Amino acid sequence: KVKLSSSRGALIVLEGLDRSGKTSQSTKLLSYMEGLGCPAELWRFPDRNTNVGQMISSYLSNQTQLDDQTIHLLYSANRWEKRYLMEDKLKSGTTLVIDRYSYSGVAFSSAKGLDFEWCKAPEKGLLAPDVVLYLDIPPETLLYVPLQKAAERGGYGGERYERLDFQKKVEEKYQALRDPSWKIIDACLSMEEVQKQLREHVMDCITSCKNGKPLSQLWL
Ligand code: Z5A
């Protein structure tokens, strides 16, 4: 276990399918916390600014090809290279709002067909979030995403099903990762309503961390 801290920031993770609103909502959360004078930073994974992150970015933009195992380990390494900075920030009282974390890593890679436990293994020992806020959206809602892409390059039908199919698999994997402590938010509600619910969970979480909730490690 990581050393106890009496007054620390909270590690808050937002997860959910593509386009469920993670980036919009985490940005709003940060402004809200800043408005309250609560020290906070917004992080996201992949963090494309590091050396490892640049390899991931190059893969995501199709400039390099990597097999599924290699990219999985790079995503994980990208979290490990931020692990100690993360701990320092939290211990100095800064709350971190993180847009995607290990759950994205496992859900996406295992949805591609990699073994679920194999995918979890390199994540073990990273800092465990104090709360996971899951933005719940039916995969079917995402149909408009390939519609736009397909308009640019044709082959619309096949791509749509392929993508929907994949998002459904990702959702199944998220469900397998879920534990009772996760906060499930209906992401089909308005932006404002989603934000309102998120703020309540976040403030509860920050309070419990300030009151001495210890940091712990993921999946150990
Ligand atoms: N990946 C991985 O495989 N392994 C890993 O370990 C990690 C990631 C960490 C990163 O993509 C890819 O890497 C991702 C997973 C994989 N792959 N995919 N596919 P990215 O960084 O490009 O993706 P993202 O930044 O996370 O974006 P996103 O998931 O596509 O979107 P989002 O952040 O959830 O949503 P948004 O940008 O806030 O909102 C999307 C739109 O919906 C936007 O126009 C909003 O205005 C609108 N929106 C949002 N909420 C609402 C509500 N409530 N009502 C109406 N409209 C809304």
TrEMBL record:
UniProt superkingdom: Eukaryota
Gene3D superfamilies attached to this UniProt entry: P-loop containing nucleotide triphosphate hydrolases (3.40.50.300)
GO CC terms in record: cytosol; mitochondrion; nucleus
EC number: 2.7.4.9
Keywords: ATP-binding, Kinase, Nucleotide biosynthesis, Nucleotide-binding, Transferase
Domain Thymidylate kinase-like: 14-197
Similarity comment text for this entry: Belongs to the thymidylate kinase family.
Entry protein name: Thymidylate kinase
